[in-house]
Structure formats: C-alpha cells, structure tokens
Amino acid sequence: MARAEHPPSTVLGPDGRVRLIDLPAGLPLGVGGLPFETADLELDEGSLLALCGDGLLLADHRDIDQGLTLLRTVLAGPARSLEHTCKAVEDAMLPDRPADDVTLLLGRTQVLAAEKVATWELSTDPTAAGRARSLVTDRLAKWGLEEVAFTTELIVSELVTNAYRYAGSPVLLRLIRDSHLICEVSDTSSTSPHLRQARSTDEGGRGLFLVAQLSERWGTRYGRNGKTIWAEQPLSTAAPNARNSETRPS
C-alpha cells in the first residue's frame, strides 16, 4: 500500500481489535516530485479494511484525531455487512450535510477454497498459448463451466501471446472461480498495455480489443516484480458490458 496525503487506513481484525496502518506519508496524486513509499502487510481472513478521505474525519467540526477515534469506535461495533457498516459510519459521523467531499471505502478479506483456484507456470516456447488453451479447457470442464470455455480460451490465448511477445518469461496463468470467472496472466514486465483500434490493414493490435469485448471488466495490476493483466467474466447468461478497470488492486 501507499498513501497520497490521505489519513491512515484502519483495520478491524477478526478478533475485534482496531488499529491504524502505519504508512509513509506521500504527496497528493498528480503533484509529482518524490516517489511514493510503499508498505506491505498481511491481513488475517475476515479483516475489515477502511480507507477514507479527511472529509469524513473532519465533518461536524472535528479534528483528525477525533475523527479517527470515532471511526474506530463505529467499526468496532456489532458485526455487520459492509453496506450496513457504511450506513453506521454515515449515521455516526455525518449528522449534517458535510462541507467537503466524503469518501469511504470498505473491504473484507476472504480466502478462496483451493478448488476454486488453478495456477500454472508456462514454459517459454511457441506452443505456450496452445498449452494454455488446453489447460483452461480441462479445468473448466472439471468445474462444469463448459459454456464459457470458448470465450475463456480466446481471452487466455490473447493474454498469454501478448505476455510472451512483449514481456518474455516466466508467465503465470491463473483461473479464479467465484461469483465471476477471472483469468489472470502475470509476467515480469512493468510496461502498461494499451487498448487501440487496429486498422483494417494491420496484421496485429487487436488482442486487448478482443479481450475487452469478450469480458465484463479487465485491467492491469502492478507488483514489485512485474504486472498482471486480468479479465473478468460473469457466470450467468447476462451479456457482457466491457469496462476497462486499469488500477491498483489487490
């Protein structure tokens, strides 16, 4: 995590203990200058992570310390869904219309069962995309998701081909099955992919455009040793509505 002049993030552990995350302070986004310092932390399953702007903490003429104390008190209350927790924070901290913008983002960590995740490291050879398609088809058959096999093969093939063409090895392929089906391809390059409209005479340049058309959402997540391009498909009969969600993360 990194902090861009926002208040420290708050974590409510599964044991009910609330603590602030000690992150190095950083300049606001877009200002430039010094690089952002990052910090790594490991959260237990069932932890509640709260990120907010100072508009929430300073509402109702509070100072930052008072706002943080009140936020911790509300988060440590009875166990609630994320939606009801947001409503509880709103009721406690925003009695009147705030003068500043208010931002609150909550997330709860969970661990997927091992049978919902499949991971493969692909070797460096021209048949990598074909092997990826075969692995994906077999796994989707085991999961009973044959109806999305053709679309998923196309997505995986494009992502793996791009990874080898522009990043080199090693390439990691991962499928995650939850409420959606997520395909991830990770490589050691930090180069950002760009979606573009290929001309009719171009021989290439349609890979990400195809991924965007076939998926509900797609994006890029950066790490210390490279990047991951992911594409998400709904496990339903609803038609996909492609959106680019290049970010940040997870």
Written account of the structure:
The chain is an alpha+beta fold. The protein has two domains: 10-108, PPM-type phosphatase domain (Phosphatase 2c, domain 1); 114-244, Heat Shock Protein 90 (2-Layer Sandwich). The chain has helices spanning 54-57, 64-75, 82-93, 128-142, 149-166, 207-214, and strands spanning 10-12, 18-20, 48-52, 104-108, 117-122, 171-177, 180-187, 217-223, 226-234, 243-244. The strands form two sheets. It has a six-stranded mixed β-sheet with strand order 5-6-7-9-8-10, covered by helices on one side. Strands 2-1-3-4 form a four-stranded antiparallel β-sheet. A hairpin with a 2-residue loop joins β6 (171-177) and β7. Mean pLDDT is 85; it is low at 237-243 and 245-250.
What is the mean predicted local confidence, pLDDT? 85
What is the N-to-C succession of helices and strands? EEEHHHEEHHEEHEEE
Q: Catalogue the unreliable spans.
A: 237-243, 245-250
What is the CATH level 1 assignment of the largest domain?
Alpha Beta
Query: Which structural class do the helices and strands define?
Result: alpha+beta
Q: Specify the helix fraction band.
A: 25-40%
Secondary-structure map:
Blueprint: E1 10-12, E2 18-20, E3 48-52, H1 54-57, H2 64-75, H3 82-93, E4 104-108, E5 117-122, H4 128-142, H5 149-166, E6 171-177, E7 180-187, H6 207-214, E8 217-223, E9 226-234, E10 243-244
Helix pairs in contact: 2-3, 4-5, 5-6
List keywords for this structure.
single chain, 250 residues, alpha+beta, Phosphatase 2c, domain 1, Heat Shock Protein 90, 6-stranded mixed β-sheet, 4-stranded antiparallel β-sheet, 6 helices, 28% helix, elongated, disordered C terminus
